[in-house]
UniProtKB/TrEMBL annotation:
TM helices/strands, residue ranges: none
Superkingdom field: Eukaryota
Domain Oxidoreductase acuF-like C2H2 type zinc-finger stretches: 328-356
Name this polypeptide is given: Oxidoreductase acuF-like C2H2 type zinc-finger domain-containing protein
Organism listed in the record: Podospora fimiseda
Amino acid sequence: MASILKLDDRHDPVANIQQWQLRQSDVQSEPVGHSEIANLCQSLLDLFPEISIALTRNNEVPKPIQIDLDRSRSAFFLWSDGYGIAQGQLDDTFVKSTRLRRSVTKILSHIGEVLTERLIPLSNVWSEKLQDLCLRVRSALENASRLLDDGVSKDSDDESSSGASTFASSGDHLNEVTEDLRTDMRCLGGLGALLKNPVFDPQDQDVSTELSVFVWSPSQSYADKIQSRFPQAAPNLIHHLGNANYQRYLRCQAIREGLLDEKQPELVTTTISESHIAQTLASGSKFHDSGIGTSIAPTISYAETMMSYRHEGRSVRIPPLSQEGKAGKPFDCVACGRKVTIRNSSLWKKHIFGDLLPYICLDIECSHSKTTFASREQWISHLALDHGMAPKWEGIQCFLCTEETGQGKIAVIQHLARHLEEISLSALPTGIDSDTASETSSDTGDEGS
């Protein structure tokens, strides 16, 4: 091997990897005694500052991007240092708590993938030292992936990691990277209660018994995403929302395949003017509310909604309005499969949420907890009347993020609706391009009507 290395060019990637492997053979015993989580965390702590230094030397990376990344780096250092993660101080806790171990591993793995597979290639910073650090992170990711026992494989992430090159401009995608890292830091911060008061696995439960009684459900994949996004939410609420999302997926799939008893319109036409929104269906066509009718008031303005968890290496967003739609031509809706004519992004988002019907009650003790409300207004009325929130609309602790919603009708509705809307987006068919355009509409609409 030594002779091969001498013959290869000093910048040959294969040669560099082989040299690094040779150097690592002398220090293989260093991580002994630390868990996979501690090793992964330490490798990220080593890589993050090196990236920050490299970015300061690259004039092509905008200053706001550098500042955002440095804030995420500082937040990550404070989080790790505060709990002694890299030092292995919580190794025993991770062994005893499957839920905590999986939650931390998922978030750290995502941070590692963002740094090595997206940030470094996009920012065009590279050096031999960065290459060595990236290899360490990838090795730690391989080891940490064994801790995930929920069927999530790295193959799906690896297959989609190459998707970074499909974005139109590196600037837009760097903004995506910084936003994803900020989300990861918020998720890590949200684990504070679990880290301080972990829920340990039952000591008398035999592994073979657990495997024999465990029945996998298709809704579990949706529940796992919701748990990753809202780690402090109650397990029964996560299960409830995961099942609701799976039913939402089946309903949209049935509509697309024409399996529901409804007469599908040949064409749905949506136009917009400054004074009003007119929506018409093909003559004689009737169907259940898909968000095109009057169930969603035209006074509501939908801002671009993004899932903070990730799907196949990218953030889950509202699918972009197609080029055909922007040109005023009919196109197939990715949610309901109908042929629609929609020219405006705000109306397109209304249509998507009208198909997904994201509004359900978050109080699982409520008699209407399994009800999918046909419109935002029905859901608001339920909160106002059945839960007695009107007329004061006092702030409450959110069932999902556990933060305060704020006082007043608009604050409460806006807070809860955003969570429900972003959760519903994962019920869309996979393989749809994300809305990475800069089009966003203000989220200042009257949330209660």
